[in-house]
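The following record pairs a protein chain with its ligand, fe (ii) ion.
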Amino acid sequence: MPDLPNPETPAEASALRLMDCPNWVYLLREFDALYRYGSAGGSPAIRSHRKRVRDRLSAVLAANPAMVDRSRETKPVVAHFARALDLGERAAMQGMARALREVKDDLTWEYGYEKVPKALAQKYAYCEVLGPRGPVQGTTLTLGFVLFAPNTTYPQHSHHDIEESYISVSGAWSENNAAVFAPGSLILNTSGHEHRITTGDRDPCLLAYAWAGPAERLATPDMKLTAPRRARGAGA
Ligand SMILES: [Fe+2]
């Protein structure tokens, strides 16, 4: 639970609690505002997802958990991060982009897969802000950002027992070739829903995401890409 000290946490990691780190608090408050005041567009499923996210986030803020010291890590796509933030600061999600800029030197960029397709390794990475591994500890909610280079295809995949929402911060992207999303748009992927993302060809794309699910699933999300395996099997 977020309010229980982790017995394995070394003294230096538990010295700071969330409320000692205003930049992380303000970033989480940007998430809270998005999921509290944005529209569900008339969708009952999106309305209940939004409520789940903000209830779980409120519980974390109230618990004021100890911060987890995560090592800073970068990935090749981070070369596009400054541009993504700049575009974000000019558009509907400027508050989120500015709050994210204030923690940019403390982010842990990851792939989340043991085997990342070569092309994707250059063009994609994500960083968690809140989740089982920190830096802000939460158990049933993960919040973070995913960054894509221009002209990227993120292959087809789904999430078991996790409902996922993306909110565009900057750039243009499409899911399953079905629509184009602009800054401020929200899309919900329910458990098991297969999805594939493509991004516009001029600018990077930065999305905020939320995962709501059972604690054991968020701790080991078991992310799997569907399409590349099929493609390799077909000799592509
Ligand atoms: Fe996904």
